[in-house]
Automatic annotation (TrEMBL):
Gene (UniProt): alr
Keyword presence, Isomerase: yes
NCBIfam families, sorted: alr
Protein name (Swiss-Prot/TrEMBL): Alanine racemase
Catalytic residues in the record: 38 (proton acceptor), 264 (proton acceptor)
Coiled coil regions, renumbered to chain: none
UniProt organism field: Maribacter algarum (ex Zhang et al. 2020)
């Protein structure tokens, strides 16, 4: 492994493969696998991740917005791409790039039908999203007759799949609610199959759904965070391998006298003779101010060094008083110890937010053997 010489987000494609195989192993062999690569593949690099997953044989990709799908097509990705949250203004581009929209409301259905007709599409694949309790996007169960009516005599689109999304698949205290969502979705699939032809395929589970409710895998699952190494569960986190690791170096070491302060607004005051190290990353790189002032630690030569004072835009300062280190030494911000999940939890957020916050300014390096 090359020695870190600046701030880099290391992306381990072997770990991605490990996680993919682990999650696949939880499923029936015939269940399709959709890799969620929205938000730069959870802050890593959507093109490299999609290329690797395509080689591994995933059946589908999902992104949130049309723009993200266009980037994948421009990079040569051929696998079908579901766009989870498209807006009508982008429908022409979506069709030009062979992206497949989630149709989540009567309005978006009518808008898509219009564009598909204008562009003379025949049986363009779409995916209908049902709301089963998350109350975010989707048709209601009793909209099936409306959908049937709107599709009658129209051949511009074809419903390739229907799907829904679980609200609390990671939280076993909410098991009753999740089981109700699953049975609601099952009912929707049955009614849809009775009323609308040809029968679409069905999907419901995200990563924690795969782990906790694999009996509801239907025809496909949609996994994001699990591919990147987290399962919202300590036991699963121990088996999965983190894909992204944020590493940096010590730019400068300072010896601080008792009573001196460190950083903006003099937020940290030294109690004795202390040693601090300055690192070349800050809130503009995705390490927000909430991680400062002793809340969170990074790892220097295997030892915990708390972030002290306020996080700056391009720098953080850490306390290395009791750590044997020098300028140029490597620092693990997250990825090993602490893990992204541990780092995030110090400020009451989740690995999803920390990972997707790592800004495009941070250099990405790829590891694959
Ligand atoms: C983001 C997203 C997923 C992926 O969820 P994970 O918890 O990361 O596996 C699946 N389905 C939908 C609709 C999503 O928006």
């Amino acid at each position: 492994m090359p020695k870190t010489a600046e701030t880099v987000l290391e992306i381990n494609l072997n770990h991605l493969e490990h996680n993919y195989r682990y999650l696949k192993g939880k499923l029936k062999p015939e269940t399709k696998f959709l890799g969620v690569v929205k938000a730069f593949a959870y802050g890593s690099d959507s093109i490299k991740i999609a290329q690797k997953l395509e080689k591994l044989g995933v059946d589908y990709f999902a992104v949130a917005y049309v723009k993200e799908g266009v980037q994948l097509r421009n990079a040569g990705i051929k696998t079908p791409i579901l766009v989870l949250h498209p807006q009508a203004i982008n429908f022409t581009e979506l069709i030009e790039c062979c992206l497949e929209p989630s149709i989540y409301s009567p309005k978006i259905l009518m808008e898509f039908l219009e564009v598909a007709k204008e562009l003379r599409q025949k049986e363009y694949p779409v995916h209908i999203k049902f709301n089963t309790g998350l109350n975010r996007l989707g048709f209601w169960e009793n909209d099936i007759d409306y959908i049937k009516k709107k599709l009658e005599g129209r051949d511009e689109i074809i419903v390739t799949s229907i799907f829904s999304h679980l609200a609390a698949s990671e939280d076993l205290n909410e098991k009753d609610f999740t089981l109700k969502q699953i049975s609601n979705f099952r009912k929707i699939t049955q009614e849809f199959d009775e009323k609308i032809n040809p029968k679409p395929f069905k999907h419901l589970l995200n990563t924690s759904g795969i782990i906790n409710y694999s009996e509801a895998q239907f025809d496909m699952v949609r996994s994001g965070i699990g591919l990147y190494g987290f399962g919202n569960n300590v036991k699963i986190d121990a088996v999965l391998k983190p894909v992204a690791s944020l590493n940096t170096i010590i730019s400068q070491i300072h010896k601080i006298e008792p009573g001196e302060t460190v950083g903006y607004n003099r937020a940290f005051t030294s109690e004795g003779y202390q040693i601090t190290a300055t690192l070349p990353l800050g809130h503009a790189d995705g390490i927000g101010r909430q991680y400062g002032n002793g809340k969170t630690y990074v790892s220097v030569n295997g030892q915990k060094a708390p972030i002290i004072g306020n996080v700056c835009m391009d720098m953080i300062m850490i306390d290395v008083t009791n750590i044997d280190c020098q300028e140029g030494d490597e620092v693990v911000v997250f990825g090993g110890n602490p893990s992204a999940e541990e780092f995030a939890s110090t400020s009451k957020t989740i690995s999803y937010e920390l990972l997707t916050s790592i800004s495009q300014r941070v250099k990405r390096v790829f590891i694959e053997s």
